[in-house]
Amino acid sequence: MLTWFEAAACGAVGGLVTEAIVTFGRLRAWQQARHAARVAGSPLPGITTYVDPPADALAAAFRTALGVAAGWLLHDQITGLYAAVLVGASAPALLAQVGRANTAEVVQAGGEPAVGTRGEEGVP
Questions:
Q1: Beta bridge partners of 107
Q2: Among 22, 34, 53, 65, which residue is least crowded by beta carbons within 10 Å?
Q3: Which residues lie closer than 8 Å to 15 by C-beta, 6 or more apart?
Q4: In a domain, 111, yes or no
Q5: Please, which pLDDT band fits residue 107 given cuts at 50, 70 and 90?
Q6: Is there a contact between 20 and 89 (Cβ–Cβ < 8 Å)?
Q7: pLDDT cut 70: percent of the chain above it
Q8: Cα dist from 33 to 20, 40, 121, whole Å
Q9: pTM to 2 decimals?
Q10: Which residue range is the domain that position 92 belongs to?
């Protein structure tokens, strides 16, 4: 089992790895567009068409922060460094899923909403 600090640090690494993969995809698209423009004799596209440094840096910072948060939140369940990096890499999707979980709307076995839930049609 990892400490909260180790899990958070590995989560940050996972977030950065994911951002590096996204950035590589953008750079690859830019490279292909330049090759196509060179073959067609068209003007070469600039890198800022594919990469926006201020916005991409902010997105990388948030992705890293989400990786840290996911590692910290799940450090009791994470048993290895590789798993902690994967938690950080999947943090945006993982935390969005956790955010959608609404324990106040537990459905009973018969398919009827649980007593006391609000916001459902037909529930007093």
A1: 113
A2: 53
A3: 60, 63, 64, 65, 66, 67, 68, 88, 89, 91
A4: no
A5: very low
A6: no
A7: 79
A8: 20, 10, 52
A9: 0.70
A10: 4-97
- 30 inside domain: yes
- 70: phi then psi, degrees, rounded to nearest 5: -65, -40
Instruction: Note whether residue 20 is domain-resident.
Output: yes
State how far the Cα of 112 lies from the Cα of 48, in Å rounded to an integer.
Answer: 54
Local structure of 123: helix, strand or coil: coil
pLDDT in tens, 1-27: 889 999 999 999 999 999 999 999 999
Neighbouring residues of 122: CB distance < 8 A, sequence distance ≥ 6: none
Burial pattern 5-42, b for ≥16 Cβ within 10 A else e, equals eebbbbbbbbbbbbbeeeeeeeeeebeeebeeeeeeee
Asked if residue 116 belongs to a domain, the reply is no
